[in-house]
Every structure is written in C-alpha cells, then in structure tokens.
Amino acid sequence: MKDLFSIEGKVALVTGGSRGIGEMIAAGFLANGAKVYISSRKAQVCDATATRLSKEYDGECISIPANLSNVEGCAQLASEIASHEDKLDILVNNAGVSWGAPIDEFPEMGWDKVFDTNVKGVFFLTQKLLPQLRAAGSAEDPARVINVGSIDGLKNPVFETFSYGSSKAAVHHLTRGLALHLTKENIICNAIAPGPFPTWMLSTGVGGGGDTDIDWSAVAKGNPRGRVGTPEDIAGLAIFLSSRAGAYVVGETIACDGGSAYAT
After folding, report:
1. In terms of pTM, does the model score above 0.70?
2. 16 assigned to some structural domain
3. Which residue of 16, 96, 104, 198 has the lowest C-beta tally within 10 Å?
4. Is residue 222 part of a domain?
5. Each residue of 168-190: pLDDT tens digit?
6. With 0-12 CB in 10 A as exposed, 13-18 as middle and 19+ as buried, what is 181?
7. CATH number of the domain where residue 99 is located
8. What is d(CA 25, CA 210) in angstroms, rounded to the nearest whole number?
9. Would you call 57 a catalytic residue per the annotation?
C-alpha cells in the first residue's frame, strides 16, 4: 500500500511532450522518478523542453522529434525508442492538432490533418511500439497506454472545430478497442479527456494568440471548480493510471475537467 502510486524507475514516452498537457505529464513523471522520452514535430522546441525538464526535475528527459501524422513518422519514432530501450512501461499518446473554421468553409485539409494526427497516429504508434510494451508488461504490473482525448469528444465543442471533437470521440472509442485486444497481453489502455487547461491550443481559441500567460478568469468562470486545470491535476491522473493504483482500470475515458463536460 505504501508505494501504491509509485512510478519510480519506469520508462515512459509522452508524445506532444514539448508543451501543454504533454509537458505537464512529462514533468509529473520526471518528478516521480520515471525516465521520460518526449516527442513533438518541432525539433528545436522538443530539445529545449527536454533539457529544461531534465534540469528542473533532476531527471532524465530525452527528446526524439517526430511527425506522427503518418505511419512513417510513427515507425521512425518507434525505431528510435527501440534503439534505446528494450521495454516501454508507459506510452502517453498526447500529440494532437485542431482546426477551426465555419461549417460552410471547413476544408478537407482541416479534416484530414486532425484525423491523421489525432486518431491514425495514436493507433499506429501504439502498434509499432507493441514489442516494447509487451516486453514491459506482466500480470502483476502491466504496461500502460494512456490516450489523451478531450471533453470535446464527450460533449459538443464550444468552437467550430468540427473534426477535432469527432477525432477525440474516435480516440475514446479506439481506447476501448485497444483495451479489448491488449489487456490479455498485459497492456492496459485508458484515455484521459482533459477540459480547460492553460495551453497554447486553448489560448488560440479564446483570443490569447497562443500565449499561456493570459488572464484565464473568463474561462474559469464557466467551470464548476472556478478555475482552469493545473499541471498537478493532469499529471496526477496520468500517474494514477500508470501506477499500481490504476492497474485494475481498463478501457475507461476519465474526464479531467473540473466538471465542465457535464455542467451544460
């Protein structure tokens, strides 16, 4: 019982880990003794984040830039991981994009880009990393796959991001399908559906232009908890799902949103 939430010594990969929710989860893992790989499309940003997090948390954070919108990028990242690690205890599929446009103007490119990264990338990266996940998992301590969805996959999005909400609903359903097939191999899959967090993506939607150092009070006002999420909120849930405490939770989509998904 004493080490119920321990992830000490585990090896994790967090995609989209250079900023936002991915960075928050990576930081939480590092602070609790895990070795963390992060990936993102922009190599310079990914490298800088890995260096900063390693120093801040006195841990080992390694940058492997990758484009996960196509199978080739997923295979390349998986190959890089395999060259460093025989086992992967935790995979956090967080990399994601959005696209906003009025319904009459919404382009095919905005649909395909979102689904390629948010859904196809999740499936094929998980597929390519199965050897390392299988090697890490045991009946006593399964490997973990955590897919980051969104409350926009649970309710109608506030913004005109038609492909985004649909893609996240697909991620939630894909999580159940992966759980059905992989639990017997000691790999358990769950999803997190974040609500409002102070991220670049949300900032662009609320007029902040991507700046996370803005006044979030207008967003917080509509949340039952009266605030936006913090790194501790999202990292705490990811740590729970990755630890012994979460080893009997399978195929679930857990909202981490202060209650906003069901407050409408």
Report:
1. yes
2. yes
3. 104
4. yes
5. 999 999 999 999 999 999 999 99
6. exposed
7. 3.40.50.720
8. 20
9. no
